[in-house]
Amino acid sequence: GEALAVSARVAPLGSRLVLLLVEDLTEARRIEAVRRDFVANVSHELKTPVGALSLLSEAVMGASDDPEAVERFAGRMQIEATRLTNLVQELIDLSRVQNDDPLEDAEPVRVDELVVEAIDRCRHQAGTKQITMAAGGTADLHVWGNRGQLAAALGNLVENAVNYSPARTRVGIAARRVTAPGGDLIEIAVTDQGIGISDKDKERIFERFYRVDPARSRATGGTGLGLAIVKHVAASHGGEVTVWSSEGQGSTFTLRLPEAGASRDRAHQHPLLD
Ligand code: ADP
Q1: Residues 97/149, Cβ–Cβ less than 8 Å
Q2: What region holds the Histidine kinase domain (predicted)?
Q3: 197 CB less than 6 Å from ligand 1?
Q4: How confident is the prediction for the chain on average, in pLDDT?
Q5: In this prediction, does ipTM exceed 0.90?
Q6: In a 10 Å sphere around its CB, with 0-12 CB exposed, 13-18 middle and 19+ buried, how is residue 259 labelled?
């Protein structure tokens, strides 16, 4: 599949159309494979926190005369609940990237709304770790695309930033417009002060199911699909996602997406945004 997709890109002009179709097909197959693998994995992954919650609630009931034990069990229940929430969120994201043509219902999407949604999504987890989240530069910026998919992409980046950072650190989200030959782009950068990613792993983290530390990732409900979804959404919107990271110091994931420009989509412009 991957080899076909690559050869399509270097094909001579004459056979371009056919090869583009081939590329589309392999991409569709790739997504279908992700979905199949995910459904197989997720049912197994869901069992773990559900089983733990059931045992822990029994433990709480048996420890009603020991407040300290109750608190300890409740803390673990909270961790398992977070894990469950993250898994369900991943299911939601995956269903959002299912439609064949993501740009069919593309519209101008306000960057500040995407950012608020992404922050809301991990507010609880950030709160328990006392992680500060701050956003800047988002005012008056609009990207062009499928709202649900864009929310899934940014949500995953912010969620990872929180997941892979120690307590009492900062997660920053900064947006800006960048001039580019093919039309202006909107750049949204998510920066954390977390564990960082080695150069070796940087090349692989966008692959589906790849996790640097499966044990740690699983503890937070990670399935290794998040960045594959982000990459897919970016590419299908004509954008890209890149990473900068320094091990032990933190990471910045940058999402570049086409701006919802006046000339490109005036006809589709949402009345409220004028
Ligand atoms: P997961 O569900 O495991 O978070 P992702 O596809 O979102 O899967 O990420 C793949 C892997 O990349 C993670 O398991 C983690 O090892 C690494 N990773 C992703 N984001 C970050 C980050 N902000 N800081 C450090 N490591 C990260």
Answers
A1: yes
A2: 41-261
A3: yes
A4: 83
A5: yes
A6: buried
Q: pLDDT tens, 118-134?
A: 999 889 889 989 999 99
Give Cα 219 to chain centroid, integer Å. Answer: 17
Does 153 contact ligand 1 (Cβ within 6 A)? no
Whether 193 lines ligand 1, by a CB cut-off of 6 Å, is no
Closest C-alpha to 224, from 69, 2, 37, 27:
37
Length of the chain counted residue by residue: 274
Q: Which residue in 125, 216, 136, 126 sits closest to 169, CA to CA?
A: 126
